[in-house]
Structure formats: structure tokens, C-alpha cells
Design a protein that fits this description.
single chain, Rossmann fold, six-stranded parallel sheet, 16% strand, Glyco_trans_4-like_N, 2 domains, Glycosyltransferase family 4 protein
Length: 364
């Protein structure tokens, strides 16, 4: 099977996902892989070492580059369509700003376009009209779509009932840790980490209220919040709480393993979720995950595999789930579970097998 894997984003989870999938597909017998990636991509050198045909596109780094890039987009679309004629299927690793503008042209050229849909509905706070317009154009151009959670698959089935769906699990984007997590802190301490873009739907206000309750009962608990965004808009007063350390910044890929391994547990207090790339990565590092029981998180965070789900989406329920980790024996048990689950969370070969099986079922 000839697969063109396409992603024109520069950095973040989309680039990491596309690289992981490219590495797995490049190693599969019977797969002829080619790539279309951004010249500005931070992982470009790692795509190059795969020794597969690569179409490198000059995209943009900033708003000015985006505006001038639109003038080049018709020519870039023609180039991609020409490259796509050498493939049986074009798989989009993740949507990009230009994807809805290019995908219809791929379909008109006869290419079998298959997007990996990370989110099937807009998150609370997203610009819903623009979001729905973008997804609608991609799905109308698609021959099939890939879902990374049952929650996303159900939403796609409701939106596009006739569109074939391929169910694929989201593995750890950076692979497994070679040596497991850092040693636990001193007795009575608990080092919690929230990591990712700071967005309203991620429940930072819920985390603020839950951590306040936790810290009142357990002063040795600490919370580190790391990511880009306006924390004060999401959760006023969070940074002022005792035990909270807020770091508003982008985290480079090579820092993520160290960041995760320094925590006793990762907490995801989301109010809504499709799935999270943080969950498999934390488990692959041997770090337990505590989350609210919403969307795809309820599928990823599993009891017996290093996961703890709060009983409800509320501050008291989340505080109670976190308080259980103050027991050193309980925390040690969860860390062992996470380390045992880590190998499966890093299995990109299994993910590639699921994708290839779904693509093989598509009519040519």
C-alpha cells in the first residue's frame, strides 16, 4: 500500500503524532510511505532520517507568514495533488490551518483523503462556526476518517453516518521512558502536575478548588501548572494558592519526559475531552494519572493500569481522588501499574496495524 502521510503544522502534538505514525509505517513490510511536511516544522530533521520520499512545503511561522503563504497556497495545493497521485491514500495526521482549504482539491483530483480526527466537536470556548466549517469541509472530502477514541467515533458517526470510520488507539507520542519515573518524594508530600495548553474546557477552575481542599488537609501537597495560555482567565486566583507553581510557557519536546518524570501524578481536571495525549505519555513514563470521568478520558484512564477516575466532575470528588494518593502504599502501587501499562501505551506498531487494516477495507 502506498501511503502519503501529510501534516503541515510546525510543532506540538500533531507533529509528534505524525512522526510516531511515520516511524511505525516506514518499518512495515508492504507499505510504501511518503511524507508531506512543513519546512518550518521543528521535527523536520527527524522526518528526514526515515529515508522515505519527502515533500517539504514552505508554510509559515507567524501571522505575516500566514498571510503571504495564502498567496502561495494554490500552487502548493497543486504540488500536493501531484504528489498524491503516486499514492493509494493520503492520511492527514492532524488538521492544520490550511487543511480545509486543500482537502477538497485532493478529493477532486481523485485522491483517497483520510483525516485523523482528534476532535469531532468544538471544545467549550472554541469558535464553533469556524470550527464546524473546517471539519465539515474535511469530512466531505474524505474517503474515511480515523478516530482515536470511542467518544470521537460516536460523534463522527452521528455527523457523517455514511463515512467509514477507522478506530485507532492514541499511543504515547514520545515513546516509553527507559528508566521509569523519578523516586517518590518524602512522606506526606505529593507532587502533582497539570501540563498542556491552558484552556477553559480543561477545568483549571475545578483543579483550583480541588487543590485548595486537598492542601488544607494535606499541606505537603504541591501543584505545578505548566503550559501556554491565560491561567488567570481560566481559573482566577489559582497562582496565588499555597503550594501552586505556575509556569506560563511552551514546553519543548525534549523537556516533556523530564517534566513528567518529576511528578508523582499527573492530573487532568477536564470538563470535556475527546482524548488526551498527556495520558498515554504519562503512563509510558510510569507516572499515574488522575482525571475527571469525561469523554475519551474515561476510556484512557483505567483502574488497574495506573489510572484514577474521580467519582464526578466536581471539586470535592477530584480532591478525594487526589487525597487517595497521599497514602505512600497506594501511590507506589499506582506507579507500578503505570510502569506495567507503559509498554502498551507506547505501541505504535499496534496503532499502525489498526490503521492499515482500516485502509485496506476502503474501496479503491
Amino acid at each position: 500500500m502506498r501511503i502519503l502521510l501529510w501534516y503541515w503544522g510546525r510543532r506540538g502534538g500533531g507533529a509528534q503524532f505524525t512522526l510516531g505514525l511515520a516511524q511505525a509505517l516506514a518499518a512495515r513490510p508492504g507499505v510504501q510511505l511518503s511524507l508531506s511536511v512543513s519546512a518550518q516544522g521543528e521535527l523536520l530533521d527527524r522526518f528526514r532520517v526515515l529515508s522515505v520520499p519527502i515533500h517539504i512545503v514552505d508554510t509559515y511561522r507567524d501571522l505575516t507568514g500566514f498571510a503571504t503563504g495564502l498567496l502561495r497556497l494554490p500552487a502548493l495545493t497543486q504540488q500536493l495533488a501531484s504528489v498524491a497521485r503516486q499514492a493509494d491514500v493520503v492520511v492527514s495526521g492532524m488538521t492544520h490551518t490550511w487543511t480545509p482549504l486543500v482537502a477538497p482539491s485532493l478529493a477532486r483530483s481523485g485522491a483517497a483523503f483520510v483525516p485523523v480526527v482528534h476532535d469531532a466537536t468544538p471544545h467549550p470556548g472554541d469558535f464553533a462556526w469556524g470550527w464546524n466549517w473546517r471539519l465539515g469541509r474535511e469530512l466531505r472530502a474524505a474517503r474515511a476518517a480515523v478516530a482515536l477514541s470511542d467518544q470521537v467515533a460516536a460523534a463522527l458517526a452521528a455527523r457523517a453516518p455514511a463515512l467509514p470510520l477507522i478506530r485507532m488507539r492514541l499511543p504515547a507520542l514520545l515513546g516509553a521512558a527507559p528508566a521509569g519515573p523519578a523516586p517518590a518524594g518524602r512522606k506526606g508530600e505529593l507532587r502533582l502536575l497539570f501540563f498542556g495548553r491552558l484552556r477553559t474546557y480543561k477545568g483549571l477552575d475545578l483543579l483550583r478548588d480541588a487543590f485548595r481542599l486537598l492542601h488544607q488537609a494535606h499541606p505537603g501537597a504541591s501543584l505545578r501548572v505548566v503550559g501556554e495560555g491565560d491561567a488567570e482567565a481560566c481559573a482566577p486566583g489559582l497562582a496565588a494558592l499555597p503550594g501552586v507553581r505556575l509556569e506560563r510557557r511552551w514546553v519543548a519536546e525534549d523537556e516533556i519526559p523530564t517534566l513528567l518524570a518529576a511528578a508523582d501524578a499527573v492530573v487532568l481536571p477536564y470538563r470535556e475531552a475527546s482524548q488526551s495525549g498527556v495520558v498515554p505519555q504519562a503512563l509510558a513514563m510510569g507516572v499515574p494519572v488522575v482525571a475527571t470521568p469525561v469523554g475519551g478520558l474515561a476510556e484512557q484512564v483505567r483502574p488497574g493500569a495506573g489510572g484514577v477516575l474521580a467519582e464526578a466532575v466536581s471539586a470535592p470528588a477530584l480532591a478525594e481522588a487526589l487525597a487517595g494518593l497521599m497514602d505512600p502504599l497506594r501511590l507506589a502501587s499506582l506507579r507500578l501499574e503505570a510502569m506495567r501499562a507503559g509498554a502498551a501505551e507506547s505501541d505504535w506498531d499496534e496503532a499502525a496495524t489498526a490503521l492499515l487494516a482500516g485502509l485496506a477495507r476502503l474501496p479503491r
